[in-house]
Batch of 4 targets.
Target 1
Amino acid sequence: MSTQQTAISADRLQKAFADGLTFEQFVDQAEVNQERLQTNFEGFELNDEDRAYFASWAEPVNVLVLAHDWCGDVVSNLPLFAKIEQETGKLNLHILNRDPDNLDIAELYPHPDGKSHIPTYVFFNDKGEEQGIFIERPEQITALFPKWGAQFWDLNPELEGRNQAIAELDPAVKQAYYKYLLSQRADTKDVEKQGIISIIQSIVK
C-alpha cells in the first residue's frame, strides 16, 4: 500500500476489499430489489466512445462501494458500474453493506451535509492511493426529482402528503413515491450513464 494520505487506513482498506462482494454476489443476496438490479444491469449499454475512454486507462481502478439494495440510487447506478466492470475490465468493485459492520468506513466518507449517504463510491489506484469519491447520484438526475415529484402527485391526487417532506409521508405513500422515481430513472439511463462517466473522468486522470 502507498503511504499517500487517505481517509481509510491501509489495513482497513485491505479488509474491506477482502470482504467486499462482487455485483453478482450483491444481487444474489438482495432482499428488496433483486430483479430491478438485474434489469438495470441488462439495460445499460456502453458505446464506442465509452469503451475507448476506459481502454485508455493503464491499470484497473478499485472501487469500494457502500450500499444496500433497498436504496433507489444503488439500484439505479450500481448496475452501471457493474456493466463497466464486466465489459471493460477497468473497474474492480468491492461492495459492502454499510450497516451494521461498515459504519466506521461510512463515517470517513460523509456527504457534504455531514451525514452518510448511499451509494458511496471511493476510487483507489493499484497502489492503494485514494483518487476520489462519488456519492448518491449525478446532479443531472437530482435536477429531475422536482419534475418527477410533481408528476407523481398529479397522477395520484387521491394520496395525501403532497406538500409534506418525504420522511413525513405515510409509509405506503412513501413506497409508492419511491417506486415512481425508480420507474422514471429506468427511462433516463443515458442521462444517468453520461453523468456518472463524466464524474469518473473527473476522478480518474
Target 2
Amino acid sequence: MTTGVVVTGLGLVTAAGVGTEPAWRAVCAGKSTAATDPALSGLPVDFSCRVPEFDARALLGRRATMLYDRFVQLGLIAADEAVADAGLDPATWDGTRVGVVVGCGVGGAGTWETQHATFRDDGPDRVSSLLMPMMLPNMVAGHMGIRFGATGPNLMTATACASGATAIGVARDMLRQGVCDIVLAGGTEAAVVPLIVTGFSRMRALSTRGESPATASRPFDTDRDGFVIGEGSGILVLERADHAAARGARVRARLVGYGASADAYHATAPDPAGAGVERAVRAALLDAGAVPSDVDHVNAHGTSTPLNDLAEAKVLARCLGHGPAVTSTKGVLGHTLGAAGAIEAALTVLTLENGLIPPTANLESQDPEIDVDVVTKEARRHPVGLALTNSFGFGGQNAVLAFAAH
C-alpha cells in the first residue's frame, strides 16, 4: 500500500531566530549569523552560529529548563510551530496514527559537559538524577510524543550530519506504507559546547577565520577552510496526501523522493569519486519518477570544507549537469550537524513556495574546479518545480530528499 506524502507544516529554530520567517529572511538576504561566542572563549575556534536567547519557560512551560537539555528545547519549539502551521490540534487527532521521527547527531552535549564537571569537582552524589533522561538523543522524540499525545512509532535517527534528512526519509516510508497518517519529522542539535567544538577543531574541520566570523563559512569559495558550527532545529509535518486532502489542509510541497547510501570509504572524509553520493542522488530521482533535467534547484550540503564541497559539486555536475541552481544555506546559518538536513529541507520547501533561491553567503571567488551554477550575491527569482536537498554525514552516510511544488 503506497500513497503520496505532503508537507503541511514547518517549524524552525536557527541562529537567525525562533521561527520560520526569520530564518527565511536571513538566508534570502545572504547575511551570516556567525559571531564570536563568549561560551567558547579561550578556545582556538571561538565563534559559532548560536540561536539567540529565548525564554524556554514561556515557550515550553515552567519546568522546561529543569527537564530538557537545550537540544530538546529547540526541537519542541520547532515542533510547536510546525503543528500550528499545519492547522492541527493534537487534542482532536487520533494519536495512534501520529508518529515522530527526529534526527540528532550528538544529543545532550550541554548536560553531559555540565554534569561531568560536577562529577569531577563535587563527586558522584552531586550528579543530577536527571542526567540520563536529559542527555539521551532519543529523548527529543520521546518528549514530542508526550507533548502531542503521538502514540504511533516514535524513533530517533543518528546518521551524523545526515540525521535530519534521514528522519524525513524514514517518516516518508512510514506514511507511504500506511503505518501513520501524520508524522512529525526533522532534526535538532545543540552541540555548541567547548568539548565538541574542540573535537572538531582538533580534526581541522572548522574554519579558523576568527578575525572575521561573519565571513568564515563560505561554501564553494576558493578560500574556504572549514565549517562554522551552529545549532538549531527543523521539524516538518508530513501527511498522507489523502489524509491532508480529507481535512482540507494547506499543502506546502510534496515529498516525492528519497535516496540513501553509504560511501563505505572513510570515517570522516568523503569519497573523492563521490560514488555513494551519486547513488543517493540517482535513487532520489528514480523514486521521484524524475530525470536530471527536471531538477531546478539543489540545496547542497555545502559545508565550506575543502574536500566536501568539491566532491559534492563533482557529483552534481556529473548527475545533473550545469542546469540546476545550487545554493548552500550554511553560509548564513552555519552547520547544525544532525539538524542541518531538516532545516535545509524546510528551506527547500520555502524555495518551492516562493520561487526564490537564496544566495550562498560569502562566495566571492568560486573554486574553478566547481563547475555548477551556484547562486551568489543575491537571491535569484526562478520558478522551481522540483528540488533536491543533500545531506552527508561522518561514517559516509548520505541522504537526498526530493521535493516538488504542490
Target 3
Amino acid sequence: MKPQLITEVPLQEKGSFHDTESIRLAKDFEDIVDLYKTLKDRLLSVNYWNYYASGVGF
C-alpha cells in the first residue's frame, strides 16, 4: 500500500506512514452534526487520544 498523494501536503522523505479511514452512516442531518462535533472534539483533544484508541471512549 502506498500513501495517498495530497497536493497540499509535502511528500514524506523518511519513516513509515499510516492511512486510516472510517465511515459512519447517519439517519438525518442532526445525527450528522452530532457525529461531526464528537469527531472534531476527539481529534482536537490530543491528550486523550490514548484513551479513545483503547476503546474506552466509545
Target 4
Amino acid sequence: MLLGESTVLTCAHVVQAAGEEALSGAPVLVRFVGLAGVPEAQATVRPGCWVPPTDDGRGDIALLELAEAFPHVPGAPLVRLGAVRDRVVHTYGFPAPHRYGVWVNNAELAGPAGAAGEWIQLNSPLPGERVRRGFSGAGVIDKATGAVLGMVVTEYTDERAGLAFLIPVEVIEQHVPDVARWVGEPPRPSAGPLIVVFGDRDSAVREGFLEQVRRERRDARRSGTGRGARAGLAAIVDATGKTAGEVAEHVSAGISTGEAVTVLQTNPEDVAVAVTGLEDARAPEEVLTSVVRPLVDKGATVLVQFSGPDSPGVRLARRWEHERNARRLARLALLVEMVEHEEERTRERAARLGSRAAVPGSSADLRLRLAALRSAGERIEPGRVRRALAATERDAEAARWELVRLYGRLDALADRHDELRGRLRGYNAKATGAGLMEDEELGELYRAAMAVLATRPDEPEAAAEPVERYVRAVRRRLEGA
C-alpha cells in the first residue's frame, strides 16, 4: 500500500521473498497496480521500520522508501478500528495463475485471532475467489466507506475453508510507530449535497437557495471539509423549456465564465448550482441524470426546485438523496465504532497506569443517535437527515480525537514512569553489584523513590527528584569506593 508520496507498507515476508540482498539494503521493485501511466519505482527498507515475522507470526511488517515521490497518487486511507467483527470488506491480490490480479469481494471480519490476538480472521465467501497466497501485503478495504482497516498477512491453507488473516492498522502502528502519521478518519463521501425544495420560481426560492448554500458550507467548515463560499461560483438556472444540453450550458456560463469543469476539478466544494423549474424542462430526468448528478458527484452543492412532491423527477432526486445519506450513515457507523474502540483502549491504559483522569464516554450517546438515524429511513425529510448526519459526524470526530489525545498523554506518562523505574532499578543493580546492599541511607532513598513510583504512577514527575537523589547517592558511593 502506498501511504504517502514515497512510503509503501507491505509484509516483511514479501520483502524477504524478493531475496536476501533486499535485506542488506539492495532495492526492490515496486509496481503501482491500476494506476495507468505511473512508472515502476525502486524502494529500500526504511531504517527502523523493519519488523520480521516471529516464529508464531507476530510482526511481519515493513515500510519501504521509494527512490522517487509520487505526490499526485492518493495514499491508502488507514483507520484504527480494533478487532471488529462482521464488517464486509474487499481486497486485491495476485494469486497464481492471476498474473494481473484478482478481487475478493464481500469477505467478512470474524474477530481477533493469531498469537497475542494480533490478527483478525478474514472469511472469504465460498464458492468463489478467496484470500490466499499472493494477497500478502494487500490492503483490506471497508466496503461501506473505502477505509483501509488492515493488511493481509497469511492464509489458512485448507482451500475448503476460505480463511485468511489480516493485521489491523492498530497493530501495524504498534510495531511501526512511523505509520501513525497516515492514520486518520474514514474517507468522506466525495459527492456534494443534493437539496430538493418545493415551491414556485420566485425570489423566495432564490433566497432559500442562497441560505441553503450558506448553511451547507457552514456545516462543511465546521467539519473541516470546506473553505467557505467564493464569489462568482454560484449559478441559478431556470430549466423551463430547456434541453439537458441547454441547462448544462447555462450552468457553465453561470460558474466562473465557462470554466466550470476547471473549478469543479480544483475546488468542487466552492461550486453551488440551483436548477429551478426542473419539471418543466424538455426532459426532467435527463437533466437530473446528465447535468445534476455529475455536478453532485464531483462535490458541488446542487439545489433542485420542483413545484410539488408529485412533479416529474422528484422520485429520482429523492432516491439520490437517500442513497447519499445511506453512504454517510455507513461512514458514521464506522466512526462510532472507532470512538468505542478509543474509549475502551483509553480506559484500559488509564486503569493500568492508575490514572484518575476522566475518560470521556460519548460513544453511548453517539450509538443512540446512530440508531435514530438508521430508523429514520424514508419517513424523515432527507435534508433533515443529512444535517443530523453532519452534526453527528462532527461530534464523533471530535470525540475520537479527544480520546486519541488523552491516550497519547497517558502513554507519555506511562513511558516516563517506566523510564524512571528502569533508572531506579538499574542503579539499584549497580549498588548491589558493588556490595552496597547494607547501606541504610541508600536503602531509605531507594524505598522512598519506589514508593512514589508505586503509589503515584500517573504522576511520574513526582518521582523524578527521589529517583535522582538515589542515583546521585549511588554515584557518590561508587566514586568513593
